[in-house]
Design brief:
Order of helices and strands: HHHHEEH
Helix content: 55-70%
Number of helices: 5
Low-confidence stretches: 165-171
Distance between the termini: 45 Å
Largest sheet: 2 strands, antiparallel
Radius of gyration: 20 Å
Oligomer: single chain
Length: 171
């Protein structure tokens, strides 16, 4: 299961990175066209807003989960140790799974309502597929949360990974 989830995560992360790259290129060319040639790219704002931003955020969720980019309040748990801390870690993991399931269900239902939504006018690109990005990203994240229940005792759950410190050298 871990191998499959890792492969899916890698694909989603690659798509998120590609989305950022395309978004940056499109915005740069659009700005140049708008301010230098007085001819912006039609629909670039809509594509960025409706597709690229959504793909970037929701397909990068698993990557952020494993890098420790989760929001957490640690002032209480920091002072706990042993079995009490482990119990709290399990509670947090289970509550995160329940919350993830609720998010998947709600975003999927929203996607079903919006699947026949309008088009991006200029190119006739349907907005429906963009609505499915959020439930897919959240579903894979929730699968990771479920898988990581077995990792809580070992301290390997992605929820409890400390964010990697970014070290820079000044020369």
């Amino acid at each position: 299961m871990r191998k499959l989830l890792s492969r899916i995560e890698k694909v989603l992360t690659t798509l998120a990175i590609a989305s950022v790259f395309i978004m940056v290129c499109l915005t740069t060319v659009d700005s140049g066209g708008r301010y230098l040639l007085n001819q912006p790219i039609q629909g670039s704002y809509e594509m960025t807003e409706k597709y690229f931003m959504v793909i970037t955020v929701f397909f990068a969720l698993c990557y952020g989960y494993h890098k420790g980019s989760n929001m957490r309040v640690t002032f209480l748990v920091r002072h706990l140790s042993g079995q009490i801390k482990l119990v709290f870690d399990y509670i947090v993991q289970i509550l995160s799974i329940v919350y993830g399931i609720l998010l998947v269900i709600s975003t999927f239902l929203y996607a079903l309502r919006g699947i026949h939504d309008s088009l991006i006018n200029v190119y006739g690109i349907p907005l429906g597929p963009a609505y499915m990005v959020a439930p897919v990203g959240l579903f894979i994240l929730t699968l990771w949360l479920l898988y990581d229940v077995g990792q809580v005792k070992k301290g390997n759950s992605g929820l409890f990974v400390e964010e990697e410190e970014i070290t820079t050298s000044v020369t």
